[in-house]
Amino acid sequence: GHAHVLKILNGVSDFQLATNEGSTPLHAAALCGHSECARELISAGADVSVLNSKGKTALQVAEENSANYKTAEEFLNLSLMYYNAADYQGCINAAQRALKLKPDYAEAYNNICSAYNAMNKFEEGIKACESALKVKPGYALAQGNLNYAKSQLKN
């Protein structure tokens, strides 16, 4: 799919190039609900703060489009976009919407854990990561976030 093509292009293309309307590939992914593409672009370093000609970030485009979201993956992507924009409460809210659609979504619990950790709310972060690990034992990212939260409580 689209995300596979982005993986191939990663490191070769400039993902910050914009159309005449100022929209970047991340804006396009947000508008079309291509959550995997948006994740790949963000992982490749796409700047979530770039404004299009309407003065909107990709996150704002995604928020406006979220009424059309039908899958947990789309809300998980929105959660990641909030996290990358340092809007941790938005990250939690979007991940919770993903969990309403897919209650056993370890990645959504992990996003919640990461956001709580960023907010220095480590008890809540621990609960979220423990939920992720109940659903997906051995999930390394959640285990790392859990370990971080526990280490911060000791300090």
Helix and strand arrangement:
Blueprint: H1 2-9, H2 25-32, H3 35-43, H4 58-65, H5 72-84, H6 88-101, H7 106-118, H8 122-135, H9 140-154
Keywords:
mainly alpha; 155 residues; 9 helices; elongated
Q: What can you tell me about this protein's structure?
A:
By secondary structure, this protein is mainly α. The chain has helices spanning 2-9, 25-32, 35-43, 58-65, 72-84, 88-101, 106-118, 122-135, 140-154. Helix 5 (72-84) packs antiparallel against helix 6, helix 5 runs parallel beside helix 7 (106-118) and helix 7 (106-118) packs parallel to helix 9 (140-154). It is elongated and about 50 Å long. It starts with a helix and ends with a helix. The relative contact order is 0.09.
Task: Summarize the entry for a quick read.
With 155 residues, this protein is mostly helical.
Strand content: under 5%
Mean pLDDT: 85
Give helix and strand order, one letter per element, not per position.
HHHHHHHHH
Please mark out the parts with pLDDT under 50 across 5 or more consecutive residues, or reply none: none
Total beta-strand segments: 0
Q: What is the helix content?
A: 55-70%
Query: SS-based structural class?
Result: mainly alpha
Shape: elongated
State the helix count: 9
**How large is the radius of gyration?**
16 Å
